[in-house]
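Note to self: user wants both folds in one dump. Writing first protein now.
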Amino acid sequence: MGTVVSFDVSADESDAPAVRAAINVAVEWLHRVDAIFSTYRADSDISRLNSGAVSLADCDPLVDQIFTLCSDVARETRGYFSSTFAGRLDPTGLVKGWSVERASELLRAAGLMSHCVNGGGDVCARGAPAPDRGWSVAITHPLDRDGFAAVVEVRDGAVATSGTTERGLHVVNPFTGRPATQLASVTVVGPDLTRADAYATAALAMGDAAREWFGEVADYEAFAIAPDGTGWATPGFSSITALPS
């Protein structure tokens, strides 16, 4: 997927062998997802589907499942989420969050109830690292790669950010076909990383309209920063983070 995934597991030292085994299963899953969906690999199912080498019926069943999920999210986001880019199939705006969330589910199935999986800044956090605090997730400032815009505390939740920090103007408004430039980054916090990831991408494409749209979205909070450094947050965002002064 062109990124790095890290695991932080809260467990007794005596559980180390079980932790390693569970993480190995999760890593195997992520490599499977990469082999199916990576747009960086010519031999992935998505790349071969784009080239016409195979049909959808020839692909792993997960491909059809993901496109169905992408269609659902497209409806939820008024069409601002799209599984195509420059005329090619590209569901990566949803796949990364979905795959990281599934990796987290595999850890929970192995009995690791308190952990944090970070896939290139998209974070799925379960349980808590200590009884008196949740997982702290720092949000990189899109205009200062060495600084943080905010720190979110999460228990059994997800944090996803879409922005220009790493890949520049890589999100396109599907209605205009032009790069989305009104916002430099959008961070979404909620219960589900699959949708938090997709909603962040869609919100970046929406630009200023995203603030009004989030007023209609239950259970998800958002924090956005514009290219001039100004920003906005949904009403509930302040309860889970310390915004910069």
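First done. Writing the second protein, which came from a different request thread.
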Amino acid sequence: MAENAGLDLVEISPNAEPPVCKIIDYKKFLYELKRKQKEIKAKASKIVVKEIRFGPQTDDHDFNFKLNHAKKFLSEGAKVKAYVFFKGRSIIFKEQGEVLLLRFANELEEYGKVESLPVLEGKRMIMLISPKKKK
């Protein structure tokens, strides 16, 4: 029947009982499959992570400036990775860094939720904040 129609016999679902076949143009079938895959990939959400860097003795003005940036990032749907970078001997101010990050998380409470609490990794104290779901 496929040869008479000038088309191809394509096996759609080989695991079914009995196997399902269609009489269609094979190249068109492959094109449709590719297009569906591309559409699914385009609809998948991409997670963007924005970084905000603090020093252990960050002043109020700088803190507020970076806080506004973080609010903007979270409202756009991006995750925020805030970290305090300790240079040289400033590692002795670990508590100040943790207090700074917790204050930062507290200020951003209505925009996002804390995904991971401040953790010291080498010379950095890192905290991740993800945006709240829009209703």
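Dump finished. Worth passing along: The longest helix spans residues 26-43.
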